[in-house]
Predict the structure.
Amino acid sequence: MEKMASVSGIRTLIRIHHSLILQKSFRHSLLQLASTCITLRHCSGSNDPSLPSDTENKSLLENLSVLGVDIKMARQRQPGVLRKSFTNEMCLAQFLQEKGASRKVIASIVSRYPRAITRSLDHLEERWQLWRNVFNTDAEIVSILDRSPESFFRSSDNDDLKKNIAFLISLGLNSKDLRRLLTTAPRTFSNTLELNKQMVEFLEDICLELGGKNPEQFATSIISKNVYLLIKSTKRVGTNINNLKTSLTLSDAELLALLQGKGVDILVLSNDCLKKNIHSLEKKMSVLGLKESDVKKLVLNYPNILYIGAATLNSKLDCLLKGGIKIKQILEKPKVLDYSIQNITERLKELQRVGYDFEKNGINILDSSKKRFVAKIEKLSGVSEE
């Protein structure tokens, strides 16, 4: 037993020793190339010479291995990067390390978005400063890069980023909006300024066509509510607006109210998807004996219903109806459709167990937090036992 414990202890010490050697090697590699980073202020781009199409840069592969990069993943993601003659991986690693990124985070960033190693030090510094104008700390930016490297490294044009930030601020978008755009819809900033202006002007025109009084505020408001709009085409958005108006026979005032409210999320769906979902909803409602006016009212009150796929929506409705709930009750409280089929099924079973009367008490209980639902069930269970 003592011998086995001794062997186990030795193995632990060896693992710790190897880990320290690896960390020391990583730091040494960065320090060794620090002077090179200072002098090499450019790196490879689309015009830089590459090796033959089937030959990878061995020196690059060695550097990436030292950094802990998953070579196999990098090869799958962007194989062309591994064939470039000139890259900037060590300078990138040093730059990110100085910003607070760990070895693991740096390796993960390069593994998932290898093109990051083609950005020059000048480009990185300028872009980082532009992001710091929006975010409060380096740590916030590192966190975003860890989640989505593409958001920072995708574009090589800092001028577009600078112009777009200034333009979006001029619209009245605040820092919180800009942070959401950078993290969830970064392509907005790699768009040309003209393309983003085109979408804003298009939205302003829609507002005026529908009788709105403040087109600038309208455009700013719906972009703030759905940041993905700026990375969609005006053709897609326009077609969706027309489909909503004609399919649901909406008046200008009704459509304007829908777009200014939660209906803005519908605009980013593909045209075919929205058309299909509207048709499926109308068909299901007709089978259940409802009129077109009921469908219209449902969408105006709960536009998210057009976000739910046909099969999922039908399953949820069938589950609720089988559980003893009337379609009229669903129309009055459509938010119950926000929950998963599993959640709806489990809650219905619990309510049936305690003899809950939907006809008498309504269905608000299905649209409650887990904590409140459990408390209600416990209370009802106590009553039924008495």
Remarks:
- Confidence is low (pLDDT under 50) at residues 1-8, 10-26, 38-48.
